[in-house]
Amino acid sequence: MAGVRLLLLLPLLAAGCAHPEARPADEVRAPVRAVADWRRVATPSDRERLRNWRAAWLRGLAEARRGAAAEVAREGAVLDPDAALAHAALPPGEYRCRLLKLGGLLPFTPYPYFRCRVHREGDAVRLTKLTGSQRQVGLVFPHDDRRQAFLGTLLLSDETRAIDYGRDADRDVAGWVERVGERRWRVAFPSPRFESVMDVMELVPA
Q: Residue 36 has what pLDDT?
């Protein structure tokens, strides 16, 4: 079992520069077998974060509304925890993506749009945030018709190389991928390690 788990972990990404096996984030290849079951890949901490997504969302939303109610209201479905629609699969392509941080250090922090890419490697789907000072990179796993699981890691600032998911808990990220409109998706990251209570990434095709 340990050997199988190691094989499943190898294609996923964690940010950092000190490890000799590190590779540029946009060059990592994910084997098809990595998509079998996200629960076999996720760390115990990330499984817990994904289980408790709703509590984190409601707490972050409450903090955000106390400090920026009008701004939060303008975001509409993207910040509604119950807005997920059927057919959640994230199609390959280039995307405009932005991060909305709820609660934590500041009540509400909306970022401008950056560049993201979704592409298929065999049966695996990889999501990479290409620009910005915080860049999530990782794999999208099947879950059900309304939700997919994202497991990956975070690159910060000018870092250009990545190591494997699961090696640094502070850099691991886990989220739920959902469709919230016609050609509009989001990734909800409950209880991120830095700054906020809940992060929500909106994605629209470029």
A: 67
Provide the 10 A C-beta neighbour count for residue 40: 13
Say how many CA atoms lie within 13 Å of 58 toward its Cβ.
4
Q: Where are the domains of the chain?
A: 2-205
pLDDT in tens, 119-169: 987 778 999 999 998 899 999 999 999 999 999 999 888 887 777 899 999
CA-to-CA distance for 165 and 186, rounded, in angstroms?
21
Q: What is the DSSP letter of 81?
A: T
- The residue with tokens 């990595």 is 34
Residue found by looking up tokens 């109610």 in the block: 69
Band (pLDDT 50/70/90 cuts) for residue 33 is very low
CA dihedral over 80, 86, 87, 88, signed as positive or negative: positive
Q: Which residues contact 200 (CB under 8 A, 6 or more apart)?
A: 78, 79, 99, 100, 102, 186, 187, 188, 189
3-class DSSP state of 103:
coil
